[in-house]
Description:
Chain A: It comes from Drosophila lebanonensis. Chain A: Belongs to the SAM50/omp85 family. By secondary structure, chain A is mainly beta. Chain A has helices spanning 2-12, 40-43, 48-52, 56-72, 232-235, 369-372; strands spanning 26-33, 76-85, 95-104, 109-117, 120-129, 138-146, 151-160, 172-184, 189-206, 208-225, 239-253, 264-274, 282-294, 300-311, 344-345, 348-349, 354-364, 379-390, 399-410, 414-425, 435-441. Chain A folds into 2 domains: 2-104, Ubiquitin-like (UB roll); 109-441, Beta Barrel (Porin). In chain B, a hairpin with a 2-residue loop joins strand 3 and strand 4 (86-89). Classes of the chains: A mainly beta (445), B mainly alpha (267).
Amino acid sequence: MSQQTRGGAAGKEPGSKYDLTKIGARVDRVNVSGLLRTHNDYVMRAAEGLFKANNFQQLMLEAMSAKSYLHELGIFKDVSVHIDISRGPDASPQGYEVTLKGKELSRVIGSAGTEVGQNEGSLRTELTIPNILGRGESISLQGSYSSTRANDLQLKFWKPFFHTRFRENRPELSFSIFRNTDRFDISSFQTINMGYLIDFSAHTQLGVDLTHSLQYENSIRDLGLLNKSVPFAIRDHCGPKLASLVRYSVVYDNRDGTVFPTRGLLLKSINEYCGLGGNVAYTSSTAHAEVNVPLFAGFVAQFCGRVGVVRETKQTTTLPINNLFYCGGPLTLRGFKYGGAGPVIDGTAIGAQTFWCTGAHLWAPLPFAGVFKGLANNFRMHFFYNVGNSNSWTTDNMRSAFGMGLALKLAERARIELNYCVPVRRQLTDKVLNGFQFGIGYEFV
Amino acid sequence: MQTSQYLNQLHTADKLAEEPWPEDATLYQPYEAEQILLPENASCLAVKAYLKMCNLPFSVRSCANAEHMSPGGRMTKLPFIRAGAFIFAEFEPIVNFVEQKDMAIGSWQDEDEKADMRTYVSLVENIFTMAEMYVSFKNERVYKEVTAPRNGVVFPWPLNLMQNYSKRRNALRLLKVYQWHDLEIDDVIEKVAKCCETLEYKLKESPETPFFYGDQPCELDAIAFGHLFSILTTNLPNMALAQTVQQFKHLVEFCRFIDEKYFQRSN
């Protein structure tokens, strides 16, 4: 990656006065200043690349990467780089001295704002105490309250290991205590989860760049009903249960953008095994894939698919209802109400044990996009066709819908869609939405 | 939303009167051998006795989370009954539900007698439920040796500790609401003895019949039996309640009679 840029930079400026690659350079000293609470060894590796530079261009590039590395360590608010020729008796000819001046984060950082979740918006406040022990360890307390009246409270401690020799793998360990309330309005129940979570995440670069995360969760899941006339199939699940599970997720992403990518592939898989003690037992796997193919004139073809399976294990007595899947809604099967394309008991939707769902999109820039310049970059039009089903792997009784709509990008992370949907195939019990549908989220099918 | 709720209620009331007693009526309660606590047992037994007196068929289903499945109630939330599309919890709502069906016992009583009987029913329910709760949660030995292990038996550790804690907190809160929290055990015994005395006096009013009112059973017979029989037959480290009830020979005799008439014969 960096090799390419270097070559490109050198080749790009044949007309410039100096070819920086021809100016020899050697780094004599690297200073990192501004370390008040941070231990020296935590920033040691920032200098590594700098000492390898042997011409001035490399020196500049390495200095920039050292700067971004220091940012990633999560201890500095701001880092500036100063390059000076080295002086003194030990100075070599062509010797340079690099000073990275950092300004450490304050003791306590508070923030408040809005966040976009899957099909919900939420208000969030966070209080962070960064770098407590001097090596990037931090504690944060965050709370959020969403438009669907779900709320979440979390106390998290995390420690990055970016300063070790596994720097490239970006290992990070975290421990959090959480309490969150989820409402499943469509099935008239809510869950209160309370427990702790240990998470270890790392990257691997064996051929392909993968992001792994291994979690252990131990929580109490208390299921309560939201109204009086709830079918017994749901009422049976009431009461608290103790869940103890491991979760492994892996992500591969080489797209060129997260919201409106033009090329690239995203693969994501989450696997859960629950039943290490406690009285909840199941295995659950979900996979999500997205392929983007650039066409002509800014048009992009996109194919998405998602599959989910919940299975019993040997210890399972009943599958927990709150781990089942809901198919339908603006994020999965457009043209259906949220959870409206799944099994129903006594008129109330109940999650499915398996589901699959695919989507084909044709993304197009807005017409006359050139007139609006930057603003138009945040909008796209799309035509879509969604196909999916619950509790069945065949295409016999599947659900499908097509339509078109307008999508808006929110801060490189989330997408807002307004679509006109026409459901094509449905089942009797499905709740369809023929007309305009609004969707907000970060992972669509 | 609001209007639809009222409509629902209206609709429910209509349906209640129309539909006959469903064949698959089910009574939900905690596991009798391992889990159920004294106040819950009394309440479940009272409801069962009532349904048997009405000669209505029902099946009993024991499940560990019966209390959490219950739509809620004033005291123990248990038992609850599922009859067709309807769910009712605790003695009084279930009795009211059955009375709408014209199959209820006690339809021979006149208004005055009914009002009189209702007073006794609520007296019995309040005094005995509170006394049972007091003994189960406020007596340290009973709580440690019986209540806590039984209540927590269906949950894995450490969930059982948390459930015990919240159950006890709720029970103590209820005791406080009824102003029983600062009573001594002697005061509780006195209240129970007084209640028993009233009941025995009532029973003696019609010495020639085995029931409280005349020669047919009514709600009062069901609830008095439920509580008295549970208190008499439950083994606790502190038997003060049982000893109190045992002093009233007529009541003990009444329990034996109901038990034989409605429970022994069917088994």
